[in-house]
């Protein structure tokens, strides 16, 4: 009989992370779900079968405390992150620093602490959750696009290092997802900004695209597919007509794709 695997799902209190945790519990995994303040969850917000742990990826001490508390895990799903928007010229230094610590450095530091066990036992799964904006950048989303692209780079490089030890890293790039993240996105735009009209147009279209996007449960199924495949693929894209748009990117000039992405968000480029 195969051993019960333990999975850590970051950002498991809402959206994609919540649905991944639900799916894994239903499949018989031991699931540890992280959140910045899990103690504040009401009873009806807690998934039965999930063990909750505090983790703030923007705080390196929190990462250390979390990994010390949970011990060895076999699977980690890096879902937690910040969605940030703002003109490049007006992004505060501290906001960009926090975004990269939360979305890139935090997942890398967390993975580093979990890898010795996975490598030692000859089995492990690391799934990073990115965004199709890393492949199709958008105006006023520069910091977020860059962070997700960096996360993908770490993931695909680490896969080459770790696969000989039975530890497989996969990167999942969702398109527009109806998670309600638009209400939690951080905005940085100065009062009287010359970018205001352009920014407002982009945000309005971005929010509308997300509201009509695929469900978090659909993304969760793709993530679980990556966990259970043997071996998993290195890259999965889901939502926003992914097969079509990635094929289009290979067939037409980059400038055409850039223009199409802008127009989808109400911008003329």
Automatic annotation (TrEMBL):
Pfam families found in the cross-reference section: adh_short
- Taxonomically, which superkingdom? Bacteria
Q: Which UniProt keywords apply?
A: Oxidoreductase
Q: Which residues form the Ketoreductase domain?
A: 5-175
Would I find Ribonucleoprotein among this entry's keywords? Answer: no
Check the record and name the SMART domains matching this protein. Answer: PKS_KR
Q: Is Protein biosynthesis tagged as a keyword? A: no
The protein's matches in SUPFAM superfamilies, at most eight in alphabetical order, are given as: NAD(P)-binding Rossmann-fold domains
Could you say which protein family the record assigns here? Belongs to the short-chain dehydrogenases/reductases (SDR) family.
PANTHER family attached to this UniProt entry: DEHYDROGENASE/REDUCTASE SDR FAMILY MEMBER 7B (PTHR44196), DEHYDROGENASE_REDUCTASE SDR FAMILY MEMBER 7B (PTHR44196:SF1)
What protein name applies here?
SDR family oxidoreductase
Which organism encodes this protein? Gordonia defluvii
Q: What is the lineage of its organism?
A: Bacteria, Bacillati, Actinomycetota, Actinomycetes, Mycobacteriales
